[in-house]
Amino acid sequence: MDIESSTTLSPHVHQESTNPAPDMKHRGGWRAIKYIIANESFEKLASMSLIGNLSVYLTTKYNLGGVFLVNIINIWSGSCNFLSIPGAFVSDAYLGRFWTLLLGSISSFLGMGIIALTAALPRLRPEACKDPTNCSNPPERWQLAVLFAGLGLLAIGSGGIRPCNIAFGADQFDTDTKKGKSQLETFFNWWYFSFTVALVIALTGVVYIQTNISWVIGFVIPTACLALSVTTFLIGKHTYICAEPKGSVFADIVKVVAAACKKRKVKSGEGVTFYLGPSRDGSSATLVQDRQRLRFVEKAAVITDPNELNEEGKAKNNWRLCSVEQVKNLKCVTGILPVWVTGIACFMLTDQQNIYGILQAIQMEKTFGHNFQVPAGWMNLVSMITLAVWISLYECVILPIARQITGRKQRLNMKQRIQIGIVMGIACMLVAGFLEKARREAALKKGSFVSPVSIVMLLPQFMLAGLTEAFSAVALMEFLTVKMPEHMRAVAGAIFFLSSSIASYICTLLINVIDSVTRKEGRSWLGDKDLNKNRLEYYFFIIGGVQVLNLLYFRFFASRFVTENNKDNRDF
């Protein structure tokens, strides 16, 4: 049915002026981007140097281990990602991207400063244990409170920075012009380049300083980087185009659900009148014919009484009458949920590699040559390098060769990449499980805390984890981006981070359940600070089993929601 004929458009739609302010020609573009990229680079260098080595710091300086250590890291990591949702809401609805980024950067600076103080002032930490296998000197509650305050401020900062940085950079270009679109593409390339450089410096140089030279210097460096991040961002203030907040898509979704519930008895079939309302770019929204999904929420846009509109033709009460665009936004979000769930299971795997993989590295032979000690935190770099190498090989070598052989421009589609990524994840957990069994047996045979098995043996599982990200995570981000309308791209990023957040929380719950159940049977699989007394391989096999279920779920259900043609992604 063509419902265009049964709808009305408000007689007057407010149009925002498209004429730029007098000084707009001196703002935006590359004169602004250099400050935004500098802000992001310094922030990422600081945050990744902590994320990559937090397990080692808490183990060696706070005498933490077992389930409690993993809980801290999982909950903190999950909170950093989860807070991108309220961060995006505050940015879109109240503060705007500039102020959200600035406050997020300041919060991160304060948090990293507290972490640096914990390294510099011995009173803020428990006394170090000489024997890691028999340590009975846990941190006091007030010492943990100081640590958690620092981590909390860092999480709040991440919530403000992650959903806004790329979007704020995109605001500096006029994407209605060919030149602006070209500049935006170049910006993305430089953004990812700077991100990669910051990541490499953080996971090599800074992590090495923290582990082998001084934790104080190793944390002062990222603190100084965050100070530079804030300073650079403020210096460039006069060059920025700062878009005004136009309301949050998340708030719109809640309003649609509320309005649909209030009008649950209203029919939304033939003859009803829908409220089109203004779209976010000031033009009127349009309707399309595909209305098969979530017909119930369409009731939120049904005009049941002319008095629901004011003299300008706008809704008087947005909690009772919503526009067609608001309803479409809700449908876009619900349409990606089945595939989004697949991403949660994939992130469960990468989260565990970032924690338990590093804990494995701590208890393995790390000496190369006469006295060079490989920092355990360097193992996270293996995944990143694998991801980068695969993408380069795929784009620059494999695709050109395939085109020469077949004569067609053919790429792996999103379904194929997600499934390959899940299979890589299954292989990763199997390899990790069998390696942990061998590492543990070798350590017990030698009777030492550190296993004689070389840290090099961890390379395969970290490489497989990198390939899991290269296939599944990248494809998931692409799926979320292309399925969302342009004005919801920031929402896509926030939803992507939310999947990682939920994965961290689920892992926390799973670890605590396993610990509780196995402890009752005599010995916990995960409860001891010494991995040699645990059965970590069983946990890896459980995560591998989750990946098998995830593969079946995606293959037989979620894959039906992945469409390569995106022309219908905004269907009402």
UniProtKB/TrEMBL annotation:
<feature type="transmembrane region" description="Helical">
    <location>
        <begin position="491"/>
        <end position="514"/>
    </location>
</feature>
<keyword id="KW-0472">Membrane</keyword>
<keyword id="KW-0812">Transmembrane</keyword>
<feature type="transmembrane region" description="Helical">
    <location>
        <begin position="455"/>
        <end position="479"/>
    </location>
</feature>
<feature type="transmembrane region" description="Helical">
    <location>
        <begin position="538"/>
        <end position="558"/>
    </location>
</feature>
<keyword id="KW-1133">Transmembrane helix</keyword>
<feature type="transmembrane region" description="Helical">
    <location>
        <begin position="188"/>
        <end position="209"/>
    </location>
</feature>
<feature type="transmembrane region" description="Helical">
    <location>
        <begin position="418"/>
        <end position="435"/>
    </location>
</feature>
<feature type="compositionally biased region" description="Polar residues">
    <location>
        <begin position="1"/>
        <end position="20"/>
    </location>
</feature>
<protein>
    <recommendedName>
        <fullName>Major facilitator superfamily (MFS) profile domain-containing protein</fullName>
    </recommendedName>
</protein>
<comment type="similarity">
    <text>Belongs to the major facilitator superfamily. Proton-dependent oligopeptide transporter (POT/PTR) (TC 2.A.17) family.</text>
</comment>
<dbReference type="Pfam" id="PF00854">
    <property type="entry name" value="PTR2"/>
</dbReference>
<dbReference type="GO" id="GO:0022857">
    <property type="term" value="F:transmembrane transporter activity"/>
</dbReference>
<dbReference type="InterPro" id="IPR000109">
    <property type="entry name" value="POT_fam"/>
</dbReference>
<feature type="region of interest" description="Disordered">
    <location>
        <begin position="1"/>
        <end position="25"/>
    </location>
</feature>
<dbReference type="InterPro" id="IPR036259">
    <property type="entry name" value="MFS_trans_sf"/>
</dbReference>
<dbReference type="GO" id="GO:0016020">
    <property type="term" value="C:membrane"/>
</dbReference>
<feature type="transmembrane region" description="Helical">
    <location>
        <begin position="98"/>
        <end position="122"/>
    </location>
</feature>
<feature type="transmembrane region" description="Helical">
    <location>
        <begin position="64"/>
        <end position="86"/>
    </location>
</feature>
<feature type="transmembrane region" description="Helical">
    <location>
        <begin position="215"/>
        <end position="236"/>
    </location>
</feature>
<feature type="transmembrane region" description="Helical">
    <location>
        <begin position="378"/>
        <end position="397"/>
    </location>
</feature>
